[in-house]
Write a structure and sequence with these properties.
With 404 residues, the chain is of the alpha/beta class. It contains 13 helices and 14 strands. The structure holds magnesium ion.
Length: 404
């Protein structure tokens, strides 16, 4: 058995699933006609397993490609390694693959693989410490309780085994995402019945269509409901300025990615100063320097990095804390399966602040197969189960498995 804070990696496995859906999930730049999920599991010599999820919604072959990258590039670098600190391991792996990233021109897929590996190593480390990941990362808890770590039992904490150490997390607000452009009110009503109080609508489908959709959603909800909109980088700056003014009457909590994420900071600042609606972005800012530049620009009120697209816990958490310190809301982006969603919740608790976690409200068997926390009056509370607090039920998911 290894020391409590050390893992010797013995296995790295990848798992790809695709679930058919009845209705495509549409946004301003494309559509998902099925739902993919790519997971990585990392097991250590004590039989403890950590899990991570790779962002892989686009392109349609993204899940298989990223899983193969992990299996062929990263797994051989991990098996046999003694891991003391997931953040150090992230830095080591990033250094080793740096030239391959340049040579292949694939910073996105490599970055997403590293992000998922980082999640899995953190899940593993927190399980070893018999702590829920949010507390392992220093997050706040709701109720007083015996919060000291338990010593893992002989052989280590088993994957998925709950250890009661007392104290739940602070409540974390969540919002129902992925609504529209068609049928948003119906999905929102279902989400309301499940406890959601905040709702995000997709826009970017034409001015009149967008405004009619926002009005219809607003009017279908109780007055005090929180509503946001997401343009998925659809507009040039002049249209974004016009839309921001036209959207002002709907009391929106934020306007997300009205222009392309890589537009110059000066353009974002000009839009922010003209927009009556707070601006949000981050899911397509995939480096520390770009996220820090976004914080420094003052243009965004809401920062939304994606824990499976770039950075994992080790890179995003320090940035998230800087964002909260700067007075921004940290609202992690997620629109995939259950592991990335629960990881986003742990990340948000650890970061602090009052930000929301995104929760896709569209049907997705690859999210619904997980025992996620219930939503009560718009918020979730994370348990004190070790690590992420859940593991995939591989038998339930088997029908969706893609062989690589
Ligand atoms: Mg978005």
């Amino acid at each position: 058995m290894s020391a409590q804070n050390e893992s010797v990696v013995t296995r790295v496995d990848v798992h790809v699933f695709r679930a058919p859906i009845a209705t495509a999930v549409v946004n301003a730049f494309g559509a998902m006609r099925n739902r993919p999920m790519a997971l990585v599991s990392i097991e250590d010599g004590d039989g403890i397993t950590g899990w991570g999820e790779v962002w892989c919604n686009f392109p349609v072959v993204g899940a298989e490609h990223r899983a193969r990258l992990i299996a062929s590039v990263f797994a051989p670098l991990l098996v046999g390694r003694t891991i003391c600190d997931p953040a150090c391991e992230y830095a080591r792996l990033a250094r080793i693959v740096a030239n391959q990233v340049l040579q292949t021109g694939e910073p996105g897929p490599f970055g997403a693989c590293l992000a998922a590996i980082d999640q899995a190593l953190h899940d593993l480390a927190a399980r070893r410490a018999a702590l829920p990941l949010w507390r392992y990362l220093g997050g706040a808890h709701e109720r007083a309780g015996p919060s000291q770590a338990r010593i893992p039992p002989p052989g280590g904490q088993r994957s998925g085994e709950a250890a009661s150490v007392g104290g739940l997390s602070e409540p974390v607000p969540v919002y129902a995402s992925g609504l529209g452009p068609d049928g948003a009110e119906t999905i929102a009503q279902h989400a309301r019945q499940r406890g959601f109080r905040a709702f995000k609508l997709k826009v970017g489908f034409g001015r009149e269509h967008d405004l009619a959709n926002v009005r219809a959603l607003r009017e279908s909800l109780p007055v005090r409901s929180t509503v946001m909109v997401d343009a998925n980088q659809a507009w040039p700056i002049d249209e974004a300025q016009t839309m921001a003014r036209l959207l002002a009457e709907f009391d929106l909590t934020w306007l997300e990615e009205p222009i392309a994420a890589d537009r110059p900071p000066a353009e974002w600042q000009a839009l922010a100063s003209a927009s009556p609606v707070p601006l949000a972005a981050g899911e397509n800012l995939c480096s520390a320097s770009r996220l820090d530049a976004a914080i420094a620009s003052g243009a965004l009120r809401v920062l939304q990095p994606d824990i499976g697209k770039w950075g994992g816990f080790s890179q995003i958490l320090p940035i998230a804390r800087r964002a909260v310190q700067a007075g921004m809301r940290f609202c992690p982006h997620w629109l995939g399966g259950g592991i990335g969603l629960i990881a986003s919740m742990h990340l948000r608790v650890a970061a602090g602040g009052d930000g929301y976690v995104e929760w896709d409200a569209n049907p997705n068997p690859l999210r619904e197969a997980f025992a996620l926390p219930g939503v009560v009056d718009g918020s979730v509370v994370l348990s004190d189960a070790p690590g992420l607090g859940l593991v995939p039920d591989l038998r339930a998911l088997e029908a969706y498995r893609v062989s690589l």
